Structures are given as structure tokens and as C-alpha cells.
Amino acid sequence: MNKTSVSIFYPCYNDWGTMGSMVLLTVQTAERLGLDYDITLIDDGSGPHTLQLLDIIEEKYPTVKVVRHEKNRGYGGALRSGFAAGSKEWIFYTDGDAQYDVRELELLVAQASPEVDVVQGYKITRNDPTHRRVIGRIYHWMVKTAFGLRLRDVDCDFRLIRRSVFDRITLIHNSGIICCEMMVKIQRAGFRVAEVPVHHFERAHGKSQFFNFPRIANVAKNMAELWFRLIILRKEI
Q1: pLDDT per residue over 73-101, tens digit each?
Q2: Global confidence as pTM
Q3: Domains and CATH numbers, the chain
């Protein structure tokens, strides 16, 4: 029986409080599931504390490599580096803040069949402060409506994607709107998506890089530009 082949990556920006446990749980899960796997950590210009931890992780775990950005490129830039680093049949990623349980990769792998190209998680319950839940609901509704996305949870970054998907679609954004860009292009290209419920937890370390008003305003501007490009101009996949 062939092993499921998965390249795993996590974007990391000053996630020194969570990255060590995430890697440990990932290795344990991948070994338990019998995966053919590798792990890449995308450091997006973190400070010395995180860099020291990543050096220790890389030394301790031979299956882990670290890709380092000298300067912060943004969430989209980190994801693009992670997708480019993938070499296995499937690519799995989630955020480095441990708000998702990496052990639930098992749920995604169970749906990875020849009839599926993307296994997309959706949050059973969002465990965030009230203002984040409200903004998240508004964002989810606006994006689904504006782009015609047929997903239960647009912004759930817990995904297993065939590497061959990226032979068909090209991602260009370095900001957080890359997730919307990616899922619109995946849907437009006709790739088959399965959705799986996953748990979402309170942030254990650090704070969100997204939820401040200047950043939200910038995301709104970038989202309008993306909508114009993809929906009005119908630009290439």
C-alpha cells in the first residue's frame, strides 16, 4: 500500500512560543499515520528569540528544514515560499500560532483521494475575542458574495492541497488576501474541494498581525483590487 506523500509547512513570524510544540506534534502525527513527509518552516523575518529556536529545531529534527526570509514579506509571501518548497504529492499548511491542532491533519489525509484536489478545513467554532468573530463573519460574507466562493469557511487556514494544483494556478499576492486569491483561482480552475470540520482554539502566544484598523483598511483596498482583477477583468488563473 503506497504511503500518502505530504510536504508540510508552517509560516512563522515570531512564533517562538508555539513552533516547538507544533513541530513535535507534527512529527508524531506523521509517523503515526505512516506518511512519506517532510517539514519546512518559513521564517518571515522573525526576531532573534525565534531564530534561535528554529536553529535548535532544525538541528534536532532531520526531517525539518527552515527557509529564511531576511525581511518580512507578509503572510502571502510566506505561503508562496512554502508552496514553492513543496516536493511531495500533497502540501499541507496551517498557521504557526497553533490555533489549529496539527494532529487533525489525520482528518484531511482521510479525505485525500483520487477524486479530490483540495481538502479544506472549516472551523467548528471560532474561539476568538468577540470583535474578531464579528469582523470574521463580515469578511466571510463579503468575500463569499463578491467572489462567488462556494466554501463554508473562506479564512480557515488548515488545508491539504495537491502540489499539481500549482502547475495550473499562480499566486501573486504577499498579503493575507492570498487565501482569497488562491481559493477563487482553485474554484475557477475546476479543482475538486472536500470540506472537513476542524477545531479552532484561543491564541496561546503572541497577537494577531491582522486585527488592527490600518491593516484592515489596507486589506479592504487590496481585496477591492483583487475583485476588479479577477471578477471584472477576468484575468488569467
Answers
A1: 999 999 999 999 999 999 999 999 999 99
A2: 0.91
A3: 5-232 (3.90.550.10)
